Protein backbone atom coordinates (compact mmCIF):
# COMPACT_ATOMS: atom_id res chain seq x y z
CA UNK A 1 0.00 0.00 0.00
CA UNK A 2 0.95 3.65 -0.39
CA UNK A 3 2.16 4.85 3.01
CA UNK A 4 3.53 8.24 2.00
CA UNK A 5 3.52 10.59 -0.98
CA UNK A 6 5.99 13.48 -0.99
CA UNK A 7 5.52 16.15 -3.68
CA UNK A 8 7.93 19.06 -4.23
CA UNK A 9 7.58 21.84 -6.83
CA UNK A 10 4.76 20.41 -8.92
CA UNK A 11 2.01 22.55 -10.52
CA UNK A 12 0.39 24.53 -7.64
CA UNK A 13 2.19 22.47 -5.00
CA UNK A 14 5.32 23.91 -3.41
CA UNK A 15 5.69 21.02 -0.98
CA UNK A 16 3.19 18.43 0.18
CA UNK A 17 3.65 15.41 2.44
CA UNK A 18 0.71 12.98 2.34
CA UNK A 19 0.45 9.85 4.47
CA UNK A 20 -2.57 7.76 3.39
CA UNK A 21 -3.84 5.21 5.88
CA UNK A 22 -5.08 1.68 5.43
CA UNK A 23 -8.69 1.17 4.46
CA UNK A 24 -10.78 3.88 2.81
CA UNK A 25 -9.16 7.31 2.39
CA UNK A 26 -11.36 10.21 1.27
CA UNK A 27 -10.16 13.34 -0.53
CA UNK A 28 -12.56 16.27 -0.79
CA UNK A 29 -12.19 19.90 -1.76
CA UNK A 30 -13.65 22.60 -3.94
CA UNK A 31 -13.45 22.25 -7.70
CA UNK A 32 -10.03 23.48 -8.80
CA UNK A 33 -8.48 23.06 -5.38
CA UNK A 34 -5.90 20.64 -6.75
CA UNK A 35 -7.20 17.12 -6.19
CA UNK A 36 -6.40 16.11 -9.76
CA UNK A 37 -2.99 17.76 -9.44
CA UNK A 38 -2.15 15.33 -6.66
CA UNK A 39 -3.14 12.44 -8.92
CA UNK A 40 -1.01 13.92 -11.68
CA UNK A 41 1.99 14.00 -9.38
CA UNK A 42 1.34 10.42 -8.34
CA UNK A 43 1.14 9.34 -11.97
CA UNK A 44 4.70 10.58 -12.52
CA UNK A 45 6.13 7.93 -10.18
CA UNK A 46 3.95 5.41 -11.99
CA UNK A 47 5.78 6.01 -15.26
CA UNK A 48 3.88 8.81 -16.99
CA UNK A 49 5.97 11.18 -19.10
CA UNK A 50 6.60 14.63 -17.67
CA UNK A 51 6.14 18.12 -19.12
CA UNK A 52 7.98 21.26 -17.99
CA UNK A 53 4.76 23.27 -17.67
CA UNK A 54 3.88 21.36 -14.48
CA UNK A 55 6.53 23.14 -12.39
CA UNK A 56 5.58 25.44 -9.51
CA UNK A 57 8.99 27.13 -9.68
CA UNK A 58 10.70 26.84 -13.07
CA UNK A 59 14.10 27.38 -11.47
CA UNK A 60 13.92 24.28 -9.28
CA UNK A 61 13.50 20.64 -10.11
CA UNK A 62 10.38 18.68 -9.29
CA UNK A 63 10.68 15.68 -6.96
CA UNK A 64 7.95 13.10 -6.37
CA UNK A 65 8.50 10.24 -3.93
CA UNK A 66 6.13 7.41 -3.12
CA UNK A 67 6.70 5.06 -0.18
CA UNK A 68 5.08 1.64 -0.56
CA UNK A 69 4.70 -1.22 1.92
CA UNK A 70 5.19 -4.43 -0.08
CA UNK A 71 5.46 -7.19 2.52
CA UNK A 72 2.14 -8.84 1.59
CA UNK A 73 2.28 -8.65 -2.19
CA UNK A 74 4.83 -11.21 -3.47
CA UNK A 75 6.82 -8.78 -5.60
CA UNK A 76 10.27 -10.21 -4.86
CA UNK A 77 10.42 -11.91 -8.28
CA UNK A 78 9.80 -8.61 -10.08
CA UNK A 79 12.75 -7.01 -8.28
CA UNK A 80 14.96 -10.03 -9.03
CA UNK A 81 13.96 -9.99 -12.70
CA UNK A 82 14.92 -6.33 -13.07
CA UNK A 83 18.03 -6.54 -10.85
CA UNK A 84 16.62 -4.22 -8.20
CA UNK A 85 17.17 -4.22 -4.45
CA UNK A 86 14.01 -5.44 -2.74
CA UNK A 87 12.85 -3.80 0.45
CA UNK A 88 9.54 -4.23 2.24
CA UNK A 89 9.32 -0.43 2.23
CA UNK A 90 10.13 0.48 -1.35
CA UNK A 91 10.58 4.06 -2.54
CA UNK A 92 9.72 5.15 -6.07
CA UNK A 93 11.25 8.53 -6.90
CA UNK A 94 11.03 10.80 -9.91
CA UNK A 95 13.21 13.86 -10.43
CA UNK A 96 12.40 16.25 -13.28
CA UNK A 97 14.43 19.33 -14.11
CA UNK A 98 12.94 22.47 -15.61
CA UNK A 99 14.39 21.65 -19.03
CA UNK A 100 12.37 18.43 -19.08
CA UNK A 101 15.16 15.97 -18.25
CA UNK A 102 13.84 13.20 -16.08
CA UNK A 103 15.33 10.53 -13.85
CA UNK A 104 13.53 7.66 -12.15
CA UNK A 105 14.65 5.54 -9.22
CA UNK A 106 13.49 2.47 -7.33
CA UNK A 107 15.16 2.28 -3.91
CA UNK A 108 17.84 4.69 -5.20
CA UNK A 109 18.60 2.48 -8.22
CA UNK A 110 18.13 4.31 -11.56
CA UNK A 111 15.46 2.69 -13.75
CA UNK A 112 13.77 3.36 -17.08
CA UNK A 113 10.22 4.67 -17.27
CA UNK A 114 9.22 1.28 -18.68
CA UNK A 115 10.38 -0.49 -15.53
CA UNK A 116 8.84 2.21 -13.32
CA UNK A 117 5.52 1.83 -15.12
CA UNK A 118 5.62 -1.96 -14.91
CA UNK A 119 6.17 -1.79 -11.15
CA UNK A 120 3.60 0.97 -10.73
CA UNK A 121 0.94 -1.14 -12.42
CA UNK A 122 1.47 -3.75 -9.71
CA UNK A 123 1.11 -1.19 -6.92
CA UNK A 124 -1.70 1.20 -7.83
CA UNK A 125 -4.75 1.20 -10.07
CA UNK A 126 -5.96 4.72 -10.81
CA UNK A 127 -9.58 4.74 -11.89
CA UNK A 128 -10.77 7.96 -13.49
CA UNK A 129 -13.65 8.88 -15.79
CA UNK A 130 -11.43 8.10 -18.79
CA UNK A 131 -10.45 4.74 -17.28
CA UNK A 132 -14.13 3.73 -17.43
CA UNK A 133 -13.67 3.36 -21.19
CA UNK A 134 -11.29 0.43 -20.68
CA UNK A 135 -14.24 -1.67 -19.54
CA UNK A 136 -15.06 -1.97 -23.25
CA UNK A 137 -11.71 -3.54 -24.07
CA UNK A 138 -11.22 -7.26 -24.42
CA UNK A 139 -8.01 -7.12 -22.38
CA UNK A 140 -9.81 -5.66 -19.37
CA UNK A 141 -12.71 -8.07 -19.66
CA UNK A 142 -10.39 -11.09 -19.82
CA UNK A 143 -8.33 -9.69 -16.93
CA UNK A 144 -11.53 -9.48 -14.87
CA UNK A 145 -12.40 -13.12 -15.50
CA UNK A 146 -8.81 -14.26 -14.94
CA UNK A 147 -8.60 -12.36 -11.67
CA UNK A 148 -11.71 -14.06 -10.33
CA UNK A 149 -10.55 -17.42 -11.72
CA UNK A 150 -7.15 -16.95 -10.02
CA UNK A 151 -5.54 -17.61 -13.39
CA UNK A 152 -2.49 -15.44 -12.77
CA UNK A 153 -0.05 -18.37 -12.74
CA UNK A 154 -1.77 -20.18 -15.61
CA UNK A 155 -1.93 -17.04 -17.74
CA UNK A 156 1.74 -16.23 -17.02
CA UNK A 157 2.66 -19.79 -18.00
CA UNK A 158 0.63 -19.51 -21.20
CA UNK A 159 2.13 -16.13 -22.12
CA UNK A 160 5.66 -17.43 -21.54
CA UNK A 161 4.97 -20.50 -23.71
CA UNK A 162 3.21 -18.36 -26.33
CA UNK A 163 6.22 -16.03 -26.48
CA UNK A 164 8.53 -19.01 -27.09
CA UNK A 165 6.07 -20.32 -29.69
CA UNK A 166 6.04 -17.03 -31.61
CA UNK A 167 9.83 -16.71 -31.40
CA UNK A 168 10.21 -20.27 -32.71
CA UNK A 169 7.65 -19.57 -35.43
CA UNK A 170 9.57 -16.48 -36.51
CA UNK A 171 12.86 -18.42 -36.54
CA UNK A 172 11.18 -21.24 -38.47
CA UNK A 173 9.83 -18.92 -41.15
CA UNK A 174 13.22 -17.23 -41.50
CA UNK A 175 15.01 -20.59 -41.83
CA UNK A 176 12.42 -21.91 -44.29
CA UNK A 177 12.99 -18.85 -46.46
CA UNK A 178 16.74 -19.30 -46.16
CA UNK A 179 16.50 -22.98 -47.09
CA UNK A 180 14.17 -22.19 -49.99
CA UNK A 181 16.63 -19.62 -51.31
CA UNK A 182 19.56 -21.97 -50.75
CA UNK A 183 17.79 -24.83 -52.54
CA UNK A 184 17.11 -22.56 -55.49
CA UNK A 185 20.85 -21.88 -55.76
CA UNK A 186 22.01 -25.34 -54.62
CA UNK A 187 22.33 -26.93 -58.09
CA UNK A 188 24.34 -23.99 -59.39
CA UNK A 189 26.56 -23.98 -56.28
CA UNK A 190 27.09 -27.72 -56.65
CA UNK A 191 28.10 -27.27 -60.29
CA UNK A 192 30.57 -24.51 -59.40
CA UNK A 193 32.01 -26.54 -56.53
CA UNK A 194 32.37 -29.69 -58.67
CA UNK A 195 34.11 -27.69 -61.37
CA UNK A 196 36.63 -26.23 -58.91
CA UNK A 197 37.11 -29.53 -57.09
CA UNK A 198 37.76 -31.35 -60.40
CA UNK A 199 40.46 -28.78 -61.24
CA UNK A 200 42.44 -29.92 -58.16
CA UNK A 201 43.99 -26.53 -57.71
CA UNK A 202 47.08 -26.06 -55.56
CA UNK A 203 48.35 -22.87 -53.98
CA UNK A 204 51.42 -21.54 -55.87
CA UNK A 205 50.79 -23.83 -58.82
CA UNK A 206 50.13 -21.07 -61.32
CA UNK A 207 53.47 -19.34 -60.74
CA UNK A 208 55.41 -22.61 -61.24
CA UNK A 209 53.50 -23.46 -64.41
CA UNK A 210 54.04 -20.02 -65.90
CA UNK A 211 57.75 -20.29 -65.13
CA UNK A 212 57.96 -23.72 -66.79
CA UNK A 213 55.88 -22.51 -69.74
CA UNK A 214 58.23 -19.58 -70.24
CA UNK A 215 61.26 -21.90 -70.18
CA UNK A 216 59.82 -24.41 -72.64
CA UNK A 217 58.67 -21.68 -75.00
CA UNK A 218 62.27 -20.30 -75.22
CA UNK A 219 64.16 -23.61 -75.00
CA UNK A 220 66.15 -23.14 -78.25
CA UNK A 221 67.14 -19.58 -77.35
CA UNK A 222 68.21 -20.64 -73.85
CA UNK A 223 70.20 -23.63 -75.13
CA UNK A 224 71.98 -21.55 -77.78
CA UNK A 225 72.96 -18.86 -75.24
CA UNK A 226 74.26 -21.40 -72.72
CA UNK A 227 76.29 -23.25 -75.39
CA UNK A 228 77.85 -19.98 -76.48
CA UNK A 229 78.69 -19.11 -72.87
CA UNK A 230 80.24 -22.52 -72.34
CA UNK A 231 82.20 -22.16 -75.59
CA UNK A 232 83.63 -18.81 -74.53
CA UNK A 233 84.60 -20.08 -71.11
CA UNK A 234 86.14 -23.43 -72.05
CA UNK A 235 86.19 -24.31 -75.77
CA UNK A 236 87.24 -21.38 -77.89
CA UNK A 237 90.78 -21.08 -79.23
CA UNK A 238 91.84 -19.16 -76.15
CA UNK A 239 89.23 -20.17 -73.50
CA UNK A 240 88.73 -18.04 -70.41
CA UNK A 241 89.50 -20.92 -68.09
CA UNK A 242 92.83 -21.67 -69.81
CA UNK A 243 93.76 -18.00 -69.74
CA UNK A 244 92.96 -17.76 -66.03
CA UNK A 245 94.97 -20.92 -65.34
CA UNK A 246 97.99 -19.60 -67.19
CA UNK A 247 97.73 -16.20 -65.47
CA UNK A 248 97.60 -17.96 -62.12
CA UNK A 249 100.72 -19.99 -62.92
CA UNK A 250 102.65 -16.87 -63.97
CA UNK A 251 101.81 -15.05 -60.75
CA UNK A 252 102.61 -18.08 -58.58
CA UNK A 253 106.13 -18.27 -60.16
CA UNK A 254 107.10 -14.82 -58.90
CA UNK A 255 104.96 -14.44 -55.79
CA UNK A 256 107.89 -15.29 -53.56
CA UNK A 257 109.63 -12.12 -54.74
CA UNK A 258 106.76 -9.71 -54.15
CA UNK A 259 104.84 -9.98 -50.87
CA UNK A 260 101.51 -8.62 -52.29
CA UNK A 261 101.44 -11.16 -55.11
CA UNK A 262 100.52 -13.97 -52.69
CA UNK A 263 97.13 -12.37 -52.02
CA UNK A 264 96.63 -11.80 -55.78
CA UNK A 265 97.52 -15.40 -56.47
CA UNK A 266 94.93 -16.55 -53.92
CA UNK A 267 92.28 -14.35 -55.50
CA UNK A 268 93.13 -15.62 -59.01
CA UNK A 269 92.90 -19.15 -57.61
CA UNK A 270 89.36 -18.37 -56.30
CA UNK A 271 88.31 -16.81 -59.60
CA UNK A 272 89.66 -19.80 -61.54
CA UNK A 273 87.77 -22.26 -59.33
CA UNK A 274 84.55 -20.17 -59.51
CA UNK A 275 84.71 -19.86 -63.32
CA UNK A 276 85.39 -23.55 -63.63
CA UNK A 277 82.33 -24.33 -61.44
CA UNK A 278 80.21 -21.90 -63.42
CA UNK A 279 81.26 -23.57 -66.64
CA UNK A 280 80.21 -26.96 -65.30
CA UNK A 281 76.83 -25.63 -64.02
CA UNK A 282 76.13 -23.88 -67.35
CA UNK A 283 76.95 -27.10 -69.15
CA UNK A 284 74.70 -29.09 -66.81
CA UNK A 285 71.80 -26.67 -67.21
CA UNK A 286 72.24 -26.57 -70.98
CA UNK A 287 72.09 -30.36 -71.16
CA UNK A 288 68.86 -30.30 -69.14
CA UNK A 289 67.14 -27.82 -71.45
CA UNK A 290 64.96 -29.85 -73.81
CA UNK A 291 62.09 -28.70 -75.98
CA UNK A 292 59.11 -30.89 -74.90
CA UNK A 293 56.19 -29.94 -77.09
CA UNK A 294 53.84 -32.39 -75.33
CA UNK A 295 54.68 -30.94 -71.91
CA UNK A 296 54.25 -27.39 -73.23
CA UNK A 297 50.81 -28.32 -74.56
CA UNK A 298 49.91 -29.84 -71.19
CA UNK A 299 51.03 -26.70 -69.36
CA UNK A 300 49.16 -24.42 -71.76
CA UNK A 301 45.98 -26.43 -71.30
CA UNK A 302 46.34 -26.33 -67.50
CA UNK A 303 46.96 -22.58 -67.45
CA UNK A 304 44.06 -22.05 -69.83
CA UNK A 305 41.75 -23.87 -67.39
CA UNK A 306 43.05 -21.79 -64.48
CA UNK A 307 42.57 -18.53 -66.42
CA UNK A 308 39.03 -19.53 -67.40
CA UNK A 309 38.12 -20.23 -63.76
CA UNK A 310 39.63 -16.93 -62.67
CA UNK A 311 37.67 -15.00 -65.29
CA UNK A 312 34.48 -16.87 -64.39
CA UNK A 313 34.78 -16.00 -60.72
CA UNK A 314 36.29 -12.54 -61.28
CA UNK A 315 39.50 -13.22 -59.36
CA UNK A 316 43.20 -13.08 -60.24
CA UNK A 317 44.79 -15.96 -58.37
CA UNK A 318 44.46 -19.61 -57.39
CA UNK A 319 44.32 -18.75 -53.68
CA UNK A 320 41.15 -16.71 -54.31
CA UNK A 321 39.66 -19.63 -56.26
CA UNK A 322 40.41 -21.92 -53.32
CA UNK A 323 38.60 -19.50 -50.98
CA UNK A 324 35.56 -19.59 -53.29
CA UNK A 325 35.74 -23.38 -53.37
CA UNK A 326 35.70 -23.54 -49.56
CA UNK A 327 32.78 -21.07 -49.40
CA UNK A 328 30.78 -23.15 -51.84
CA UNK A 329 31.56 -26.28 -49.86
CA UNK A 330 30.38 -24.59 -46.64
CA UNK A 331 27.16 -23.47 -48.30
CA UNK A 332 26.45 -26.99 -49.47
CA UNK A 333 27.26 -28.38 -46.03
CA UNK A 334 25.09 -25.70 -44.39
CA UNK A 335 22.20 -26.65 -46.64
CA UNK A 336 22.44 -30.20 -45.38
CA UNK A 337 22.80 -28.93 -41.82
CA UNK A 338 19.83 -26.58 -42.29
CA UNK A 339 17.67 -29.52 -43.26
CA UNK A 340 18.40 -31.13 -39.90
CA UNK A 341 17.92 -27.83 -38.05
CA UNK A 342 14.67 -27.21 -39.91
CA UNK A 343 13.33 -30.62 -38.93
CA UNK A 344 14.20 -30.01 -35.27
CA UNK A 345 12.73 -26.50 -35.36
CA UNK A 346 9.50 -27.80 -36.87
CA UNK A 347 9.29 -30.40 -34.14
CA UNK A 348 9.87 -27.76 -31.44
CA UNK A 349 7.29 -25.45 -33.07
CA UNK A 350 4.72 -28.24 -33.04
CA UNK A 351 5.45 -29.07 -29.40
CA UNK A 352 5.13 -25.42 -28.34
CA UNK A 353 1.92 -25.03 -30.32
CA UNK A 354 0.46 -28.11 -28.65
CA UNK A 355 1.54 -26.77 -25.25
CA UNK A 356 -0.06 -23.37 -26.01
CA UNK A 357 -3.28 -24.99 -27.14
CA UNK A 358 -3.44 -27.12 -24.01
CA UNK A 359 -2.81 -24.13 -21.73
CA UNK A 360 -5.29 -22.03 -23.74
CA UNK A 361 -7.88 -24.73 -23.27
CA UNK A 362 -7.21 -24.74 -19.53
CA UNK A 363 -7.65 -20.96 -19.52
CA UNK A 364 -10.87 -21.24 -21.49
CA UNK A 365 -12.31 -23.90 -19.17
CA UNK A 366 -11.35 -21.90 -16.08
CA UNK A 367 -12.82 -18.70 -17.51
CA UNK A 368 -16.01 -20.44 -18.57
CA UNK A 369 -16.42 -21.83 -15.09
CA UNK A 370 -15.99 -18.38 -13.49
CA UNK A 371 -18.44 -16.49 -15.72
CA UNK A 372 -21.66 -17.35 -13.83
CA UNK A 373 -20.07 -16.21 -10.55
CA UNK A 374 -18.79 -12.95 -12.11
CA UNK A 375 -22.19 -12.17 -13.62
CA UNK A 376 -23.98 -12.86 -10.34
CA UNK A 377 -21.48 -10.94 -8.18
CA UNK A 378 -21.48 -7.86 -10.43
CA UNK A 379 -25.28 -7.79 -10.64
CA UNK A 380 -25.50 -8.11 -6.85
CA UNK A 381 -23.34 -4.99 -6.41
CA UNK A 382 -25.23 -3.12 -9.12
CA UNK A 383 -28.48 -3.79 -7.28
CA UNK A 384 -26.86 -2.40 -4.14
CA UNK A 385 -25.98 0.84 -5.97
CA UNK A 386 -29.40 1.53 -7.39
CA UNK A 387 -29.52 -0.54 -10.61
CA UNK A 388 -31.99 -3.32 -9.69
CA UNK A 389 -32.87 -4.31 -13.25
CA UNK A 390 -29.30 -4.70 -14.52
CA UNK A 391 -28.28 -7.70 -16.57
CA UNK A 392 -24.68 -8.61 -17.34
CA UNK A 393 -24.13 -11.29 -19.95
CA UNK A 394 -20.57 -12.46 -20.65
CA UNK A 395 -20.01 -14.25 -23.95
CA UNK A 396 -16.83 -16.30 -24.18
CA UNK A 397 -15.92 -18.15 -27.38
CA UNK A 398 -12.74 -20.04 -28.15
CA UNK A 399 -11.68 -19.27 -31.72
CA UNK A 400 -8.88 -21.83 -31.75
CA UNK A 401 -6.51 -19.10 -32.91
CA UNK A 402 -3.57 -18.57 -30.56
CA UNK A 403 -3.17 -15.02 -29.29
CA UNK A 404 -1.26 -13.39 -26.39
CA UNK A 405 -4.27 -13.86 -24.09
CA UNK A 406 -5.24 -17.35 -25.26
CA UNK A 407 -7.76 -18.37 -27.89
CA UNK A 408 -10.80 -16.64 -26.39
CA UNK A 409 -12.95 -13.84 -27.71
CA UNK A 410 -14.93 -12.19 -24.92
CA UNK A 411 -17.70 -9.62 -24.87
CA UNK A 412 -19.54 -8.09 -21.94
CA UNK A 413 -23.18 -7.39 -22.84
CA UNK A 414 -25.16 -5.17 -20.51
CA UNK A 415 -28.62 -3.88 -19.91
CA UNK A 416 -29.53 -1.41 -17.17
CA UNK A 417 -33.27 -1.33 -17.87
CA UNK A 418 -36.00 -3.88 -17.54
CA UNK A 419 -37.11 -5.43 -20.82
CA UNK A 420 -33.99 -4.32 -22.68
CA UNK A 421 -31.84 -6.98 -24.31
CA UNK A 422 -28.18 -6.91 -23.23
CA UNK A 423 -26.01 -5.11 -25.78
CA UNK A 424 -22.28 -4.27 -26.03
CA UNK A 425 -21.39 -1.73 -23.33
CA UNK A 426 -20.58 1.13 -25.70
CA UNK A 427 -24.13 0.97 -27.10
CA UNK A 428 -26.28 0.86 -24.00
CA UNK A 429 -24.56 2.28 -20.90
CA UNK A 430 -24.49 5.94 -19.84
CA UNK A 431 -21.55 7.52 -18.04
CA UNK A 432 -23.13 7.05 -14.63
CA UNK A 433 -24.07 3.46 -15.39
CA UNK A 434 -20.59 2.67 -16.66
CA UNK A 435 -19.06 4.17 -13.51
CA UNK A 436 -21.19 1.97 -11.29
CA UNK A 437 -20.58 -1.08 -13.47
CA UNK A 438 -16.83 -0.46 -13.28
CA UNK A 439 -17.11 -0.03 -9.52
CA UNK A 440 -18.92 -3.35 -9.26
CA UNK A 441 -16.23 -5.07 -11.33
CA UNK A 442 -13.38 -3.42 -9.42
CA UNK A 443 -14.96 -4.42 -6.10
CA UNK A 444 -14.99 -8.02 -7.33
CA UNK A 445 -11.38 -7.84 -8.53
CA UNK A 446 -10.35 -6.36 -5.18
CA UNK A 447 -11.36 -9.57 -3.46
CA UNK A 448 -9.23 -11.76 -5.72
CA UNK A 449 -6.19 -9.71 -6.80
CA UNK A 450 -3.07 -8.75 -4.86
CA UNK A 451 -3.22 -5.10 -5.92
CA UNK A 452 -2.17 -2.96 -2.93
CA UNK A 453 -3.98 0.31 -3.75
CA UNK A 454 -6.84 1.55 -5.90
CA UNK A 455 -7.69 5.21 -6.45
CA UNK A 456 -11.13 6.35 -7.61
CA UNK A 457 -11.28 9.79 -9.16
CA UNK A 458 -14.91 10.99 -9.39
CA UNK A 459 -16.52 7.57 -9.12
CA UNK A 460 -19.60 9.57 -8.08
CA UNK A 461 -20.23 10.85 -11.63
CA UNK A 462 -23.93 10.74 -12.44
CA UNK A 463 -25.15 9.60 -9.00
CA UNK A 464 -26.52 11.22 -5.86
CA UNK A 465 -28.65 10.63 -2.80
CA UNK A 466 -29.30 7.07 -1.71
CA UNK A 467 -27.30 5.63 -4.62
CA UNK A 468 -24.27 7.61 -3.51
CA UNK A 469 -24.63 6.16 -0.03
CA UNK A 470 -24.68 2.67 -1.50
CA UNK A 471 -21.63 3.40 -3.62
CA UNK A 472 -19.93 4.50 -0.42
CA UNK A 473 -20.85 1.17 1.14
CA UNK A 474 -19.23 -0.67 -1.78
CA UNK A 475 -16.05 1.37 -1.40
CA UNK A 476 -16.09 0.63 2.31
CA UNK A 477 -16.37 -3.09 1.59
CA UNK A 478 -13.52 -2.91 -0.93
CA UNK A 479 -11.32 -1.26 1.69
CA UNK A 480 -11.38 -4.50 3.66
CA UNK A 481 -9.17 -6.08 0.96
CA UNK A 482 -6.94 -3.21 -0.16
CA UNK A 483 -6.14 0.44 0.35
CA UNK A 484 -8.78 2.63 -1.32
CA UNK A 485 -8.37 6.34 -2.02
CA UNK A 486 -11.51 8.07 -3.30
CA UNK A 487 -11.77 11.63 -4.59
CA UNK A 488 -15.40 12.69 -4.24
CA UNK A 489 -17.80 15.63 -4.07
CA UNK A 490 -20.58 13.65 -2.40
CA UNK A 491 -20.98 13.69 1.40
CA UNK A 492 -22.60 10.25 1.35
CA UNK A 493 -19.39 8.73 -0.04
CA UNK A 494 -17.10 10.98 2.01
CA UNK A 495 -18.77 9.86 5.22
CA UNK A 496 -17.62 6.28 4.67
CA UNK A 497 -13.93 7.07 4.87
CA UNK A 498 -11.81 5.89 7.74
CA UNK A 499 -9.46 8.78 7.02
CA UNK A 500 -10.52 12.09 5.48
CA UNK A 501 -8.26 14.66 3.77
CA UNK A 502 -9.18 18.12 2.58
CA UNK A 503 -7.49 19.63 -0.47
CA UNK A 504 -7.55 23.44 -0.50
CA UNK A 505 -5.80 26.46 -2.03
CA UNK A 506 -4.26 29.53 -0.48
CA UNK A 507 -2.78 32.73 -1.89
CA UNK A 508 0.52 33.81 -0.42
CA UNK A 509 2.63 36.67 -1.75
CA UNK A 510 0.70 36.70 -4.99
CA UNK A 511 1.10 32.94 -5.53
CA UNK A 512 -1.60 30.28 -5.39
CA UNK A 513 -0.67 27.09 -3.59
CA UNK A 514 -2.40 23.76 -3.14
CA UNK A 515 -2.37 22.17 0.31
CA UNK A 516 -3.80 19.03 1.85
CA UNK A 517 -4.51 18.17 5.47
CA UNK A 518 -6.12 15.38 7.43
CA UNK A 519 -9.39 16.39 9.09
CA UNK A 520 -10.22 15.65 12.70
CA UNK A 521 -13.75 14.47 13.63
CA UNK A 522 -15.07 18.01 14.20
CA UNK A 523 -13.58 19.26 10.93
CA UNK A 524 -15.10 16.30 9.11
CA UNK A 525 -18.57 17.31 10.25
CA UNK A 526 -18.02 20.82 8.91
CA UNK A 527 -16.60 19.52 5.60
CA UNK A 528 -19.54 17.17 5.02
CA UNK A 529 -22.00 19.89 5.97
CA UNK A 530 -20.40 22.19 3.40
CA UNK A 531 -20.64 19.44 0.80
CA UNK A 532 -24.33 19.18 1.65
CA UNK A 533 -25.32 22.87 1.63
CA UNK A 534 -22.44 25.11 0.67
CA UNK A 535 -19.80 27.22 2.40
CA UNK A 536 -22.08 28.38 5.24
CA UNK A 537 -23.94 25.28 6.39
CA UNK A 538 -26.93 25.59 8.74
CA UNK A 539 -27.88 23.46 11.70
CA UNK A 540 -29.79 21.02 9.53
CA UNK A 541 -26.78 20.40 7.32
CA UNK A 542 -24.54 19.92 10.35
CA UNK A 543 -27.05 17.51 11.89
CA UNK A 544 -27.27 15.59 8.61
CA UNK A 545 -23.48 15.44 8.45
CA UNK A 546 -23.36 14.05 11.97
CA UNK A 547 -25.93 11.43 11.02
CA UNK A 548 -23.87 10.41 7.98
CA UNK A 549 -20.84 10.06 10.25
CA UNK A 550 -22.99 8.21 12.79
CA UNK A 551 -22.22 10.78 15.47
CA UNK A 552 -24.70 11.58 18.23
| SS field, number of helical segments | 17
Structural class: alpha/beta
Q: Based on DSSP secondary structure assignment, what is the total number of beta strands?
A: 15
Might you state the CATH topology name of the domain at 1-128 and 458-519? Rossmann fold
User: Taking all residues together, what is the mean pLDDT?
Assistant: 87
Query: Helical proportion?
Result: 55-70%
Task: Name the CATH class of the domain at 1-128 and 458-519.
Answer: Alpha Beta
| Broad shape | elongated
Distance between the termini: 33 Å
What do you see in this structure?
With 552 residues, the protein is of the alpha/beta class. The mean pLDDT is 87. The chain is elongated. Among the domains are: 1-128 and 458-519, P-loop containing nucleotide triphosphate hydrolases (Rossmann fold), CATH 3.40.50.300; 181-335, no CATH class; 520-552, no CATH class. The strands form three sheets. It has a six-stranded antiparallel beta sheet, with helices on one face. Strands 8-12-13-3-14-15 form a six-stranded mixed beta sheet. Strands 9-10-11 form a three-stranded antiparallel beta sheet. 30% of the residues are buried. The chain has helices at residues 35-44, 76-81, 113-123, 138-149, 152-199, 205-217, 219-235, 240-254, 261-288, 293-313, 318-384, 425-428, 431-448, 465-478, 491-494, 521-533, 539-548; strands at residues 2-10, 13-18, 24-28, 62-69, 89-96, 102-106, 109-111, 124-127, 391-403, 406-415, 423-424, 453-457, 483-487, 499-508, 511-518. Strand 5 (89-96) and strand 6 (102-106) form a beta hairpin.
Amino acid sequence: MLSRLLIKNYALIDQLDIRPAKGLNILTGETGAGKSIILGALSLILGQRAEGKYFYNQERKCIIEGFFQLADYQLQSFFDEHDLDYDEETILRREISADGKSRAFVNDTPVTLTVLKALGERLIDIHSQHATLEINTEDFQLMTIDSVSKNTHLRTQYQSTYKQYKQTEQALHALEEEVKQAQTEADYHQFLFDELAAAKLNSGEQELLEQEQNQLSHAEEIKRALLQANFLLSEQEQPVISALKEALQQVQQVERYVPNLQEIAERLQSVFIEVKDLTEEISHIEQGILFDEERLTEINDRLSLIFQLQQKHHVSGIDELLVIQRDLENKLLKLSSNDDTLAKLKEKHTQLKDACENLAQELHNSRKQAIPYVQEAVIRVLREVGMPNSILQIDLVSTGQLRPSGTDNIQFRFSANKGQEPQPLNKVASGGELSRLMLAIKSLIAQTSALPTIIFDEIDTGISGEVALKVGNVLEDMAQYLQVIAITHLPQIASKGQTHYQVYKTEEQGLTRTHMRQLNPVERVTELAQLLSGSNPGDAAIQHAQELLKLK
